[in-house]
From TrEMBL:
PANTHER family: CIPA-LIKE, PUTATIVE (AFU_ORTHOLOGUE AFUA_1G01630)-RELATED, NMRA-LIKE FAMILY PROTEIN. This is NAD(P)-binding domain-containing protein. Belongs to the NmrA-type oxidoreductase family. Isoflavone reductase subfamily. The keyword NADP applies. Keywords: NADP, Oxidoreductase.
């Protein structure tokens, strides 16, 4: 008889930004065997306690064998990964008997606002991936943490509007629009809390929360619901600076977004990122998620200034895009 708990977890991208934190949190919990699905030519460093499984993405049989016996497949791939890779993983997961998937999203709960999903440039792609999983007859759960805080605050002006090294702040509109944002650690904690639940209720009258309650939905996780101006106040506290130490300018969100789309149409990768982030700061506040599971999963309240220090550390080693 199979267990009603997740025991075996396959993770694509276990050495990447988000994936390594999920892998580490799974290993730390001690309840799961964690397998990293990886290519032979990969030079990524896997977290301790993670078992590598070498696969060939051009050989369907290799992928199926690599996923056999896994309860869940978690996909955390770079945006630069070949677009067909996600479908290959879906097909292999179906053939291997994987019970459910966490697809490569890690953004916002796109089903809540389809206009936002389309205009933030990644939502339609993610909704299509959900359709592909549905077509394969597999359950899925989308983990939505908003934009990653360290990555977005420390990744350059075109993300959250800050060039930390040069002390420049581009305030979008009045800088007061709030959005949901999460650290890599918080997303990992929420993901593991989800996987620690029973998969299905023990019986029809059992009302306890289970993984199956979330099938076909987004599980929304949050570190902070925060505006640019609040991020700026944290940056000033952490760096010991004042407004006078920063070059501050203001840009209209609509004009910034239009500029981003034009850049993107001209082939600029920065334009894509600029548009994606700028849409989150539109006056409609669509990137502020009201339905987080933080209290349900007993996730900790994080220290904003400590996380801002993490963003500064990320900025010091960031090599672009």
């Amino acid at each position: 008889m199979s267990s009603n708990y997740v025991q075996n977890v396959a993770l694509v991208g276990a050495g990447g930004n988000q994936g390594k934190y999920i892998a580490e949190e799974l290993v730390k919990g001690g309840k799961h065997k964690v397998t990293a699905i990886t290519r032979a030519e990969s030079n990524g460093v896997l977290p301790a306690g993670v078992v590598p499984q070498i696969v060939d993405y051009n050989d369907p049989a290799s992928l199926v064998e690599g996923l056999r016996g896994q309860d869940v497949l978690i996909i955390t791939m770079s945006v630069m990964a070949p677009p067909e890779t996600h479908q290959k993983l879906i097909d292999a997961a179906k053939a291997a008997g994987v019970k459910f998937l966490l697809p490569n999203e890690w953004g916002y709960d796109h089903e809540r606002d389809l206009k936002f999903a389309k205009e933030n440039l990644i939502g339609e792609r993610n909704l299509k991936r959900r359709e592909d999983i549905d077509a394969a007859g597999l359950p899925w759960i989308a983990v939505a943490g908003g934009f990653w805080y360290e990555f977005s605050l420390g990744g350059g002006e075109y993300r959250y509007g800050f060039d930390i090294a040069n002390r420049e702040y581009t305030r979008i509109n009045n800088g007061d629009i709030k959005l949901s944002t999460s650290t890599w650690e918080q997303v990992a904690r929420g993901t593991v809390a989800l996987l620690n639940l029973k998969i299905y209720p023990d019986n029809a009258v059992n009302k306890e929360s289970t993984i199956s309650n979330y099938f076909g939905k987004s599980v929304c996780i949050e570190s902070f619901n925060i505006s640019q101006n609040e991020m700026f106040e944290s940056l000033k506290r952490v760096t010991g600076t004042t407004d006078a130490d920063w070059k501050i300018k203001t840009e209209d969100s609509g004009e910034r977004y239009a500029r981003a789309i034009k850049m993107m149409q001209e082939g600029s990768r920065i334009g894509y990122g600029l548009g994606m982030y700028t849409r989150a700061f539109f006056p409609d506040g669509a990137a502020s998620m009201p339905n987080t599971v933080n209290s349900v999963f007993n996730l900790p309240k994080e220290d904003l200034d400590e996380c801002t220090k993490g963003a500064i550390k990320f900025e010091e080693t960031f090599k672009g895009y």
